[in-house]
Write a structure and sequence with these properties.
By secondary structure, the chain is mainly alpha-helical. The protein is built from seven helices and four strands; from the N terminus they run βββαααααβαα.
């Protein structure tokens, strides 16, 4: 049975997400963490280009939740708030209201899990690009890390 990882944890009282700690730890080990661990996922969700890396660039919405987040011991910079405007571009649409888009993306992200092998493949691809363009950040022991994660995941299942 493949191992899947939950990517986000939903905070209903704040109506936003944080990165799931288990996924976050694995993303860190694999070098999948840019300014947050879901940047690469956003690129795939939004036209598979660098526009998607900005899917959670919504500092004004985070600022509105700052006090509530701090009361829960969460740094507001860790909040992933869905801004429905990021999911439409005005070309031949939009086809849905902002409220509906927010509901839709909230449901999608609540249930989002990814196969760990997909993460490994993404890490390998990113590491290949890193070696070319930012060699000082290349992860020489990436395959060793992948094997360690596989072993950890096996232990969790047993």
């Amino acid at each position: 049975m493949p191992t899947t990882l939950k990517i986000f944890d939903y905070l209903p009282d704040l109506d936003c997400f944080v990165i799931n700690p288990r996924y976050h730890a694995i993303a860190d080990q694999l070098g999948l963490n840019e300014w947050h661990a879901a940047v690469w996922i956003g690129r795939l969700f939004i036209l598979d280009n660098d526009y998607g890396e900005h899917w959670f660039d919504n500092w004004d919405l985070r600022e509105q939740l700052k006090n509530q987040a701090e009361e829960r011991g969460i740094d507001s910079s860790e909040l992933m708030v869905i801004d429905p405007a990021r999911f439409e571009n005005g070309n031949d649409g939009p086809c849905h209201t902002p409220q509906f888009r927010k509901r839709f993306w909230t449901d999608v992200l609540k249930s989002l899990t990814l196969d760990i092998e997909l993460l490994f493949d993404e890490a390998r691809e990113q590491n290949t690009q890193t070696e070319k363009y930012v060699p000082e950040e290349f992860i020489a022991d990436l395959e060793t890390r992948i094997e360690q994660i596989r072993e950890q995941e096996k232990d969790l299942k047993n």
